[in-house]
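Continuing the series of single-chain predictions for the mutant panel. This is the parent chain; the variants come on the following pages.
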Amino acid sequence: MRDIRNDLLERVDLMEGRIKAAHAKCEDKIKQLQSERDATVADLKSSIAMLAKLLEFEQQETGNVPPVAPKSPQLSLADFFERQLIESGPLSKDDLCNMAMKEGYFPDAESARQTVDGTLMNIVREKRICPLPDGTYALPMLSQAVRLRRVV
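Parent structure:
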């Protein structure tokens, strides 16, 4: 009877190589999709900025300048953070704080910082979002993907 252990070990090495190749292929696809998303979002934001300028110009020309009223947030702060992470991917605490202030959740930076810290702690505790090793926050599935990448 022939000893086939070496053949089996070669097959294991072959399968491990295929696994690594599959991971690399997925990583490349993820990077490609992220760059496509970033380009699309940048184009759309540019269009929004251009339209806002045109609207502002048109309002000034017609003399119909509406009074500036603060936006009233419709989502809870936790839901707003989750939506931002879905739309933008991982974000830092400062990014989330700035976005919340821009959306009208807070009148000033000091009150924003205190509330953002507490809200982030709560939604991390509820496992709705996860902190990443680089200090950013992400949705749980993305956080798991980052951890898996480090293992491989």
